[in-house]
Please model this.
Amino acid sequence: MAKNKQKHFLQLYEPVHDRFERFCRARVFGKMEYQDLMNDTLLVAFQKLDSLKSEKAFLSFLIGISVRVLANHHKKKKEDSIADPTNFDLQDVNAKTERDAEVYMLHKALAILPEQQRECIILFEISGFSIKEIMELQNASESAVKQRLKRGRAKLVEILTFESDYKKEVKNGTR
Model:
């Protein structure tokens, strides 16, 4: 019986692995290791597999659990929900290419956004969820989800443009 449950779980997980990993990487930037979030989430998901209502909703099931796991992690660490920009001066030893550096900067910028905007953008832009699915995950109206996306995108542009301009000024010696 346990073997069948494990096999069933792996069959559900394998097709969504990449999308789930991208969500976890973007969601936890600067807070904890994404692998830890994935592992903790998968453990809870396996234990609660019987409560899954629809196999089509498995990725939503995982993301909902990961959001709660991350919230519990923050409570345990007694962290503020507002990101402290001084925590994001970490060097990513894996950022060897220009693309990796751009992804690093995007994750750094995402970490500065308010939690609901960050989660909404990650779900829509990175994980590929529809607005309807995000409405269910965030328990919000369609207009609220669209507003979070709009404001989050605008704030990302502001953050990324500022950083880019600042780096150019430093490089040119004007700052």
Notes: Confidence is low (pLDDT under 50) at residues 79-83.
